[in-house]
Write a structure and sequence with these properties.
alpha+beta, 11 strands, about 375 residues, two-stranded antiparallel sheet, five-stranded antiparallel sheet, single chain, about 45% helix, 3 domains, Hypothetical protein af1432
Amino acid sequence: MASQLLRLVSSQLKVGAALPFGVRDEHGKLLLARGQVIDNEQQLAALMARGLYADQEEVKAYKEGRSKEADNAGGRRRTLFDLWEQSAWHLDRLLKSIDEPDFPARCDEFATLQMDLVQRDVDIAIFLSVRQDPRRLPLYGLTHALNTALVCQLMGQRVGWEPGAVRSLVKAALTMNLTISELQGRIATMGRITDPQREQVRAHPQAAADKLRAAGVDDPRWLEAVQQHHERKGPGGYPQQLTNIAETAIALRMADVFIAKISARTDRPALSIQDAARQMFAEAGGSPLASAIIKEYGIFPPGNVVQLVSGEQAVVIRRGGTALTPLAAAITDKSGTPTVTTMRRDTGQPGYAIKGAVTDTSLVQRVPPERLYGLAE
């Protein structure tokens, strides 16, 4: 069923504030994605002159998903989900400013803010890496970098790397694809790749490292991780087919591949967390790095849709006391009928134990994450 469009008026959009929903033309083509910022009154006037619309379901989800945290800049209430939405656009502006002065310092500042955002609620961060919005495929390059940085942060901390090494790895994840970020979005959306694009992809580790050096980056761990993050022992590594690979690059590649496997694209569905973890562990030969990722995410991580013995379908929202007993929010009743409200279920209780993962996750896409976390009615 085709989505319905609502005509927007200027009072619904605020200059300098993150857009609460995607803005489209009369044919439904996305002009500005949720979280993007209208910079000035002239830009707003030009957009309004052409006629602006929004998807009715997105507007409804926005209204349902307001939180109790005040947004001092935009005058509306926002949640951690809004901050994560905005992170993609902040990263976009950062990467596009690589030729401007003080890029290393600005990247370090962004990494600090992003790592702090993760620590504010790790479960929500994991949820967003697992339960990705299919409407944001054009932003795949940006969201992939943010999610990979998340995995790198959690992995590095769990294996006991010193803070400087973890920070270098996070910055490498944020910048590893800076020369192909927009191309990644096109490929994820279109589902095909041309030969010239394939060559660009194969060349991007070296190209990104060169750009970073030219911008003043001199951290060897950061640069090595970016330059070598597609190298691997055995066949298939690129661009130099190295056999002596830096540990930071091995860690970055592991996080990069793990996130890629659990991310859907037009040409293929996402792999289940369980299958992605098994493949990663097997390929890494039981590496402590792979074990760290698995331990952080758990068997049923936040964002996973599960079937409970009660008959309800639920979305995992918090990791639990064990890998098999997370906290979940039921989105159906015992007969499988979708519910308007969500109920918390402790899967450590026998009556709400998890039977298994649910493969058809279309239902959860209609439930605002704020509702799952009790931030909206």
